[in-house]
């Protein structure tokens, strides 16, 4: 809400004065104005002046001159972290001899943040829209952000803002504030699905949020990281961080990055968003980010939908401007809905490949990373035929419990186990050679019937590595009965995954360190899930038209 008439009248007079060149102590090219709910910006060509409005909202209080001065100083201080040469200081606006002056004599009546005006043509938003943002620039931005998040040690007080309880409260606050606009502007069905998906994710992934705190991934971030706030001018300048509420800035780095990735998606360039995130993870090795990304993208998209709804309460908008806000709010809601489907839709992971290719190591690491069940054919097979998992069976190739009939039973059981998990809305990992196209077709059909995503992770390794690992099995306890003497036959039997679409198939060289393998897998998973959801949405749209 706005304060009394005194402050409003003074600001109206100041805004009128700043619309004229006379008040500026420097040459100007032209005067342009930008309005938001909480501020007004005057652009003069060389410099920009930002004045905070005397508003009191749920999350900020600019109602006193003292507060406005304080938050102007905060804005300069905080934004110098990412744009040190842009923020020049806080300038008093004084009144003397019947006139307003910038940094003149007399009593200060208002304060403005003075900034070096950046060329709009070099904003990230503008560059993306014109197709001028190259891969090198995206990588440089990822590196700058990675360095920014690591420049200070995580403060213990800041880390608490990443607690599960805080994240839950933030999400619930978001829903509560958006709820008045449901039905009239926001689609109720989509809103309810987003809310249910968010709550389910939080309940299911509570341990992950705790782990992020332990790993000190909660930082003093930017808080409003959008394409319109990033400029590729004299390096990279990132402006307009949140200064008025620490709670909006203290967050998991994933939440900050998700805002930017979501904004890039909104501009219609998801591939650029993927490049940015992949580059960031490559620099930081923070593979958990992929697990959280869509959740936070959803949260940020709903925030933007809500903000556009809030702005409709300004009665000064024309009908045309109001229609534009409504369209934006609905586009952001659609984006939030899409993310919610992505992070809740179960995925069937097929970890396949030759014996000793590293399948079980990958499956075990993946299961730990995303907290889902893994079913191994070696264990399922032995239990199915009445043996203990670690009972060694010295069978001939494709004989005994490894006969074609026994293998058919084993793969059928794996399908049943996967089906039960997916029915519960859970992702699942199946660890087996899946050497035959027939067996792969079976799990593809299951994914289609169960409306689930599917990813084939084909583990490969050099022949020497396979031999070495199989020799080591002779002296170790393992559930697998495959030995070196079987390798030639396994290789001859393995049918290439040529019919699996690229977006559903990732080939991982397990000669690489395990951590590098996991980064490759999780990055591909996020990209694949996005493409599968896009296809799903397209099909659903076609079904309704």
Query: Termini, distance in Å?
Result: 44 Å
The radius of gyration over CA amounts to: 28 Å
Structural class: alpha/beta
Second-tier CATH architecture of the largest domain? Alpha-Beta Complex
From the structure provided, what is the oligomeric state, counting identical versus distinct chains?
single chain
Approximate helicity band: 40-55%
The number of helices is 20
In the sheet with the most strands, the strands line up as 1-2-3-8-6-7
Instruction: Provide the CATH top-level class of the largest domain.
Output: Alpha Beta
In total, the number of domains comes to 3
CATH homologous superfamily (4th level) name of the largest domain:
Aminoglycoside phosphotransferase (APH), C-terminal lobe
- Quick one: biggest sheet? 6 strands, antiparallel
Average of pLDDT:
91
Would you give an account of this structure?
The chain has helices spanning 5-17, 65-79, 124-129, 135-150, 156-159, 164-178, 188-204, 206-214, 246-249, 253-266, 270-284, 289-311, 319-344, 359-370, 377-384, 404-423, 437-449, 463-472, 487-493, 514-544, and strands at residues 32-35, 39-43, 47-52, 56-57, 60-61, 87-96, 99-102, 107-116, 218-220, 230-231, 237-238, 250-252, 347-353, 373-376, 428-431, 453-460, 505-509. It has 545 residues and is of the alpha/beta class. A hairpin with a 3-residue loop joins β1 and β2 (39-43). It is elongated and about 105 Å long. The two termini are 44 Å apart.
Provide the descriptors you would attach to this structure in a database record.
6-stranded antiparallel β-sheet; 5-stranded parallel β-sheet; 51% helix; 545 residues; Phosphorylase Kinase, domain 1; alpha/beta; Aminoglycoside 3'-phosphotransferase, Chain: A, domain 2; 3 domains; elongated; Rossmann fold
